[in-house]
Design goal:
The chain is an alpha/beta fold. It has 12 helices and 12 strands. The strands form 3 sheets. It has a 7-stranded parallel β-sheet with strand order 3-2-1-4-5-6-10, with helices on both faces. A 3-stranded mixed β-sheet has the order 7-9-11. Helix 8 packs across helix 10. It is globular. The structure holds nicotinamide-adenine-dinucleotide and 2'deoxy-thymidine-5'-diphospho-alpha-D-glucose. 2'deoxy-thymidine-5'-diphospho-alpha-D-glucose (DAU) binds next to helix 6 and strand 8. Nicotinamide-adenine-dinucleotide binds next to helix 1, helix 4, strand 5 and strand 7.
Length: 359
Amino acid sequence: MRTYLVTGGAGFIGSNYIHYMFGKYDNEIRIINVDALTYAGNLENLKSIEDRENYTFIKADICDKDTISRVFQENDIDRVVHFAAESHVDRSIVNPEVFVQTNVLGTAVMLNCAKAAWELPDGSYKADKRFLHVSTDEVYGSLEEDGGYFYETTPYAPHSPYSASKASSDMLVKAYMDTYHFPANITNCSNNYGPYQFPEKLIPLIINNALQGKKLPVYGDGKNVRDWLYVEDHAKAIDMVQEKGRLFETYNVGGHNEKQNIEIIHIILETLQEMLAEDDPRKALVSEDLITYVEDRKGHDRRYAIAPDKIREEIGWEPETMFKEGIRRTIQWFFEHEDWMKNVTSGDYQKYYSEMYKV
Ligand code: NAD
Ligand code: DAU
């Protein structure tokens, strides 16, 4: 049975990935999830799988090298999928240091511990071991409004402390591949959306605020462009890269779904209006009047757009969820998980670990 070590599995993409993997492989794999449970980690995301015999949760910081190296010593890890990171650009502008700590130092610890566990005396590696570093399109910087795409060969030009820390972590992974022939891949993905996304990010924030009749903050002129991908498509891409990707390669992940932020907000408002029942009191609250232009994000990248040619041609991955369908599924999920949102916004989700694990 193959053993996966997933870092940051209690976060948005990590928890979706774990659900995807158990849905696909069921009892054929084992997953160990290492997560520090920062404000972004929520074990409620994993409630439905937490009792599986082939799932283990370990509360640990990826910067804690003794604990991480023990996880490798005590388990024969075959695959690492490294999600754990500080992920929110706005927070990185306020407090950059924790981004350097987790994203750069934490990645170095993960690489070192995996290398120590997998390397043979002659410098080669145990068979069939792979490390996948989950990164972002933000490392490439910003594109002009009127054209161009991010390719795997696009030079790195990060602007925010978040993207600078992710770029640094990518460079470390590249250095391990070049220097030690360490068996790794990097994926650079565009903006994800879907279930379990923390409501500090644009799409869940707009859904949650609109349903409560709260203001919808739009940074700057609202015309910044992001390339949106349904999170399950990202989970599938990660799995396919580990199964079919060439080692030492970088793969960009995205689906040519570029939209201005203001367009996203209009689509969410229209979709909410379509989906809410006539007698639902929230219907009267959802309104374009809530749109409020606010001060721009510092150093706000204008446009991101992924060229996904390499992953499509080499691996056969393509996004399956069109935006209209993905946004409906996301909204439906939020309708069905009002308690999840209440627990997150009240902070109660942070009690879940101590209640569940009696610590
Ligand atoms: P998230 O903020 O929702 O989750 C991050 C998870 O990492 C949380 O569970 C948190 O508790 C954990 N974590 C943070 N610091 C840790 C530490 N020191 N030790 C152990 N665990 C720690 O993030 P996300 O949106 O799920 O992103 C996951 C990864 O994917 C990140 O590496 C991010 O850079 C990358 N990414 C995100 C997007 C996106 O649109 N969200 C797009 C491309 C790439
Ligand atoms: O591109 C991939 C990246 O996407 C990931 O690497 C990051 O982890 C993830 O957080 C995301 O970064 P963004 O900064 O693009 O996402 P965010 O949801 O914070 O913002 C999306 C856009 O919406 C951005 O142009 C800023 C704008 N925005 C955001 C918020 C929260 C607003 O206009 N108003 C808001 O309130």
